[in-house]
Amino acid sequence: MKEWQFQRDAIRTFRFVRCGFDPANGIARLVYAFDDGPELVETVTVPGAPFVLDEARAAAAERALRLLHLIAGVSYYKAAVAPELRIDGYAIDAATAALLETIYRNGLGEFAYRNGLDLHDRIRFPHGDATQAPVPALGLRAHALVAIGGGKDSLVSIEALRGAGVDQTVTWIGGSQLIAACAARTGLPTLNIGRQLAPQLFDYNRQGAWNGHIPVTVLNSAIMVFAAVLLGVDQVVFSNERSASYGSLILAADGSVTGEVNHQWSKGWACEQAFGEYVQRHVAADLHYYSLLRPLSELAVARQFARTDRYDAHFSSCNRNFHILGERPVNRWCGVCPKCHFVFLALAPFLSKPRLVGILGRNLLDDPAQADGYDALLEYQDHKPFECVGEGRESRAAMAALAQRPEWREDALVERFVREIRPQLQAQDLRIEPLLVLDDQHRIPPRLWERLREAFAA
Ligand SMILES: CC(=O)N[C@H]1[C@@H](OP(=O)(O)OP(=O)(O)OC[C@H]2O[C@@H](n3ccc(=O)[nH]c3=O)[C@H](O)[C@@H]2O)O[C@H](CO)[C@@H](O)[C@@H]1O[C@H](C)C(=O)N[C@@H](C)C(=O)N[C@@H](CCC(=O)O)C(=O)O
Ligand SMILES: Nc1ncnc2c1ncn2[C@@H]1O[C@H](COP(=O)(O)OP(=O)(O)OP(=O)(O)O)[C@@H](O)[C@H]1O
């Protein structure tokens, strides 16, 4: 028989073949296929096996596993954007289909924009007519699995939870040594969940698969929800800030806005709300998924981060550290990507200059070669980069604050801002203080928020 070949444009169907979990070794297998091609098997390994689950928890684990199977399929679906989606092993209801359509359509927004694809009417999850009744509570114990990503945001959450006396396990997915070092530095219990993508994906990429960004935060969230059920804990905490809800405005040649594309859609409020509500209604009624930093802007997070130097020699927000394949920056910060640019700028108003330059190893604001990168952050002659960076108004306000500081104002890019960009802006739009005000749109448990609000406001 002729061997199956990946031919992107000839593929008709993307199949969710089956998923399974072995409680004896903690390995979940998520299986997919294109048409009648080979099975693509992704594995997720949760430490702590063997897992002994009572009937109610085993049923919840199966529901969480299916949710993960359906969400993690996005990595493979994108390779061919097949016209038809098929779920072979089980049926889903309309609420599940609606959640998945939201996640796939929005979470692949940047992917679609960059590849010139219109996925809106293409992504339809087949579902039955029956509506699932809300699921019961499992009697989960009060404990938080807190996601750690190696950058400043999750470290702010971890320290805030520590201050509020919340029991937590610092949890990450994948084999990053940088994240492992940050996690160790917290001195808290840790959990490292293994994840292996199906190896064929990399072959398909070489054979012309569609490629681009996927909604990785909601995928990591689904992995952690699954782990929380296995471990019997009642909270999954992420550190997605308010600014993540705002995308990049796409401009036409005449400068008019033609649309918005959010690289970090799955870090945004709409995704947190939809996913968190679904988990409570369809996985376990007492499992709370929330972002502790939702009320904060990036600048407010930066201000909190500045309060301790405990992680200065360990953390990095530079995403170039996190490639599965390929090179990583030698000293944790590449110094030339949008995240390095933004984090340097966002921390500058709140950290001493020697401390900040010591962390990144150089002064990015005194390097004229970085002007284009900073222009994009400022939304000056360009759109905000497709990266996890703050809003344009935050970058402009941070730059304006530095322009007032003797230690910064003569640096090349601050001086250029004063000369070339600031004259085109309104002074009242350049104040930092309004951007530090806490928002009240979040899913943080009310009693915890009462304890944290004051610390975050100061
Ligand atoms: C590290 C990174 O930024 N990767 C993005 C990059 O991928 P690249 O090819 O340069 O390297 P790899 O990450 O090693 O990926 C290899 C291929 O595998 C695909 N893939 C990877 C993980 C996965 O879960 N599913 C996959 O299909 C990937 O597409 C590659 O073909 O560029 C890609 C295309 O734009 C991005 O998709 C890669 O982003 C990773 C999925 C990733 O983990 N990125 C995070 C560092 C990230 O962007 N985090 C955001 C959160 C945004 C969100 O939730 O949407 C953040 O920093 O806040
Ligand atoms: N490998 C991972 N495993 C688990 N959670 C992760 C992983 N990578 C990122 N996250 C989580 O995803 C969310 C978004 O990641 P993001 O990179 O914005 O945060 P960060 O690394 O804490 O800070 P920074 O924005 O400075 O990079 C955070 O809650 C982070 O903890």
TrEMBL record:
Q: Which residues form the MurL N-terminal domain?
A: 6-292
Query: Keyword Electron transport on this protein?
Result: no
Pathway membership of this protein? Answer: Cell wall biogenesis; peptidoglycan biosynthesis
Q: Which reaction does it catalyse?
A: UDP-N-acetyl-alpha-D-muramoyl-L-alanyl-L-glutamate + ATP + H2O = UDP-N-acetyl-alpha-D-muramoyl-L-alanyl-D-glutamate + AMP + diphosphate + H(+)
Residues in domain MurL C-terminal?
A: 315-427
| Enzyme class, UniProt record, top EC level | isomerase
UniProt superkingdom:
Bacteria
List, alphabetically, the InterPro entries matched.
Answer: MurL (IPR043689), MurL_C (IPR058741), MurL_epimerase (IPR053538), MurL_N (IPR058740)
The protein's UniProt keywords, in alphabetical order, are: Cell cycle, Cell division, Cell shape, Cell wall biogenesis/degradation, Endonuclease, Hydrolase, Isomerase, Nuclease, Peptidoglycan synthesis
Q: What is its EC number?
A: 5.1.1.23
State if Ion transport is listed as a keyword: no
Mind telling me which Pfam families this protein's record contains? Answer: MurL_epimerase_C (PF26298), MurL_N (PF26299)
Q: Which residues form a coiled coil?
A: none
Which GO molecular-function terms appear in the entry? endonuclease activity
Among NCBIfam families, the record links this protein to: MurL_Xanthmoales
Instruction: Describe the function of this protein.
Output: Cell wall formation. Catalyzes epimerization of the terminal L-glutamate in UDP-N-acetyl-alpha-D-muramoyl-L-alanyl-L-glutamate.
The family this protein is said to belong to: Belongs to the MurL family.
Name of this chain's protein? UDP-N-acetyl-alpha-D-muramoyl-L-alanyl-L-glutamate epimerase
* Gene for this chain: murL
